[in-house]
């Protein structure tokens, strides 16, 4: 009789699934707070940050809600709701504090190009949109997080700010813009890879590329048994861990369902793909120096808010326009066309159907986007850059996003456009679902996860002391304390060379 080789068994404290910005951030936080932790990291691709965290796949704005109009919706009574914008602006300040701590304490050696200062602007045309932007400006500038925001309807000033967008424009149409000079561009792919390069050199941390997590199951001991396959050798192994984080982007939905925790029931995902027009003309690229966001079309998802976007990628200045939305049943850019159908279960079928019925406009929008001709895409660019020339632009495939669908007692199911952290009741497992603003708010998201999953540790003197060292504003509100915000911004700007 031939005896099969026994599957190797490994014991660890923490398993991180997915080598993106979320797992990298959580890994860095945990090793700073608890240096003796053993961490196993698994990524199905051959390199870190190859999906949503990659610079070409990610918006890379350094979301601060300075320019993203979808974070400040207009209410039925005509007022502008700024609550979400304030939360996101605070969260990005938290991220900058953590990055500054890592650099200042020589934990990471990050290139200057990972974060650059680039003005954030909102630009609109037409009477209704100009009125909205004016109200948005007035509402936001009552909060010190948006101190320094400028507003203008003066075409001459706009010609100075955004010459490409003003040349050839109809002078009879009203236009308006806001501008925040302290906006940033962040290469999250570069940041993520630097974090993992540091983590893999730490005692007790092991990184595994080309390893796919196939299953996970809760044991009677309270630990998780995770089954992993080496995609290059075919070897399988089991890892036992006290805590598991599923940060696999679009792949998180599948693994969350495999966990079978009660909290996972009713969650579904709706994939949205994207494309960019990339500028090839160096002279055009040099003439634009801003991230300029417009207003999304009715029914479009937030990730499709059009913007003419200055980016720094691998030390080189780039100019992108888009993204153009599309539809694919893949949950990852390098995923399977079966991802969406295989994600549909009896527990999430009703929420998914209800969300689909409620969002017919989104479905129509995606169909229209998929059916767009090259001429249609270029016409959208010319609405922002009237004198754009087709030969100066090339279509590039962007990343894949999976919007969260969850149960709703009133409507059966709702489509969420933000991020959602799902945790087991005992804190032994957490999964991150969703998309924007994601990467920019990674530190705040992971701090919230620590509170939910490491309850016995997070309130200890040791962890509280360390958290306040890493993030000076920890436990305080930057949206309520103007003096604290000024101190934090001054310090992080100096350390990050902004």
TrEMBL record:
It holds the Pfam family Mqo. Its EC number is 1.1.5.4. Keywords: FAD, Flavoprotein, Oxidoreductase, Tricarboxylic acid cycle. The keyword Oxidoreductase applies. It catalyses: (S)-malate + a quinone = a quinol + oxaloacetate. GO terms for molecular function: (S)-2-hydroxyglutarate dehydrogenase activity; L-malate dehydrogenase (quinone) activity. Its cofactor is FAD. SUPFAM superfamilies: FAD/NAD(P)-binding domain. Transmembrane segments: none annotated. Pathway: Carbohydrate metabolism; tricarboxylic acid cycle; oxaloacetate from (S)-malate (quinone route): step 1/1. Coiled coil: none annotated. InterPro entries: FAD/NAD-bd_sf, MQO. It comes from the Bacteria. Belongs to the MQO family. NCBIfam families: mal_quin_oxido, PRK05257.1-1, PRK05257.1-3, PRK05257.1-4, PRK05257.2-1, PRK05257.2-4, PRK05257.2-5, PRK05257.3-1. This is Probable malate:quinone oxidoreductase. It comes from Pontibacter arcticus. The gene is mqo.
């Amino acid at each position: 009789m031939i005896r099969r080789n026994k599957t190797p068994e490994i014991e660890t404290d923490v398993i991180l699934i997915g080598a993106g910005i979320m797992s990298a951030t959580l890994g860095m936080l945990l090793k700073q707070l608890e240096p003796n932790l053993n961490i196993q990291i698994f990524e199905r691709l051959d390199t870190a940050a190859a999906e949503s965290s990659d610079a070409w796949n990610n918006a890379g704005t350094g979301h601060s809600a300075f320019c993203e109009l979808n974070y400040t919706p207009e209410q039925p009574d005509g007022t502008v709701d700024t609550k979400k914008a304030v939360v996101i602006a605070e969260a990005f300040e938290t991220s900058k504090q953590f990055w500054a701590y890592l650099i200042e304490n020589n934990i990471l050696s990050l290139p200057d190009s990972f974060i650059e200062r680039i003005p954030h602007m909102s630009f609109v045309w037409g009477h209704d949109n100009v009125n909205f932007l004016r109200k948005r400006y007035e509402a936001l500038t009552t909060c010190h997080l948006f101190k320094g925001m400028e507003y203008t309807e003066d075409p001459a000033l706009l010609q100075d700010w955004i010459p490409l967008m003003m040349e050839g424009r109809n002078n009879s149409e009203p236009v308006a813009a806001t501008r925040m000079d302290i906006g940033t561009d962040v290469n999250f792919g570069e940041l993520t890879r630097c974090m993992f390069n540091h983590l893999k050199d730490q005692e007790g941390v092991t990184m595994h590329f080309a390893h796919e997590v196939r299953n996970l199951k809760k044991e009677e001991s309270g630990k998780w048994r995770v089954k992993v396959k080496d995609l290059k050798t075919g070897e399988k192994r089991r890892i036992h861990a006290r805590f598991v984080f599923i940060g696999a982007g679009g792949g998180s939905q599948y693994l969350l369902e495999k966990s079978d925790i009660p909290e996972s029931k009713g969650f579904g995902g709706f994939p949205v793909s994207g494309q960019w027009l990339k500028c090839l003309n160096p002279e055009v690229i040099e003439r634009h120096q801003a991230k300029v966001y417009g207003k999304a079309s009715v029914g479009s998802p937030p990730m499709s808010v059009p913007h003419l976007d200055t980016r720094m990628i691998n030390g080189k200045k780039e100019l992108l326009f888009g993204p153009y939305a599309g539809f694919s049943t893949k949950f990852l850019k390098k995923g399977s066309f079966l991802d969406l159908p295989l994600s549909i279960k009896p527990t999430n079928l009703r929420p998914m159907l209800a969300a689909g019925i409620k969002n017919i406009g989104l479905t129509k929008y995606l169909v229209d986007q998929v059916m767009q001709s090259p001429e249609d895409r270029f016409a959208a660019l010319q609405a922002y850059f009237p004198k754009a020339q087709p030969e100066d632009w090339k279509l590039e495939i962007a990343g894949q996003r999976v919007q969260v669908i969850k149960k709703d007692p009133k409507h059966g199911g709702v489509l969420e456009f933000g991020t959602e952290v799902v945790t087991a009741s005992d804190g032994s497992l957490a999964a991150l679902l969703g998309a924007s603003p994601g990467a920019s708010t990674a530190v705040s998201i992971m701090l919230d996860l620590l509170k939910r999953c490491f309850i016995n540790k997070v309130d200890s003197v040791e962890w509280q002391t360390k958290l306040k060292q890493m993030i000076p504003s920890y436990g305080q509100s930057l949206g309520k304390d103007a003096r604290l915000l000024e101190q934090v911004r001054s310090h992080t700007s100096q350390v990050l060379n902004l």
